[in-house]
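Lab notebook, bench 4. The sequencing result for the construct came back, and we need a structural model before the next group meeting so we can plan mutations. Quick request posted to the team channel:

Model the 3D structure of this chain.
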Amino acid sequence: MLIIGIAGGTGCGKTTVVNQILNELPEGEVGVISQDSYYMDTSHLSFDEREKINFDHPRSIDFDLLESHLRDLRAGKDIYQPVYSFLKHNRTGDTILTHPRKVMIVEGILILTNPELRKMFDIKIFVHADSDERLIRRLKRDISERGRDLEEVLTRYKNTLKPMHQQFIEPMKEYADIIIPNNKYNTVAVDIVKTIINQSLV
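Done. Here's the predicted structure in token form:
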């Protein structure tokens, strides 16, 4: 099994890169795991308390569970991914049955911050995008998909997202095997990744 980690700041276009890779690979041979599914269970907290959590800090992620699931997949076992609700700031209690694949892609803003997880990745990719572009994408997504208002998103960006990005995410470029600039010229980098994956599928 080839395990690929794809990281980068919020709104950098990780999902776009993942889809570019998936679109040209054999269906059923590549699986995707999102870091967002592995936010800590916050059932013991009230909604008001959950709203105050810094979800852009590595401690908000249940890395132990994510690592355990990757080990199980690599051993040929099925896993049950948690389902997370951004509206409730908590897991829903539902799970998604996930089967082992020849290639597993793990994507998320904080996945390269964990040393044990980094060791599990055969390829580490960092998707880079301009900070203004990332803010615009985050605004559009959080307002349209996650029920946030403009003021809430801007406040969170200024007080949490930006400082956490500078402290934890941007420095992770150091560990990346490939840095993909997320613009119209990224086709070469994506093609390199697809070539590596195709070779592993043979």
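The longest strand covers residues 90-98.
Will bring this to the meeting.
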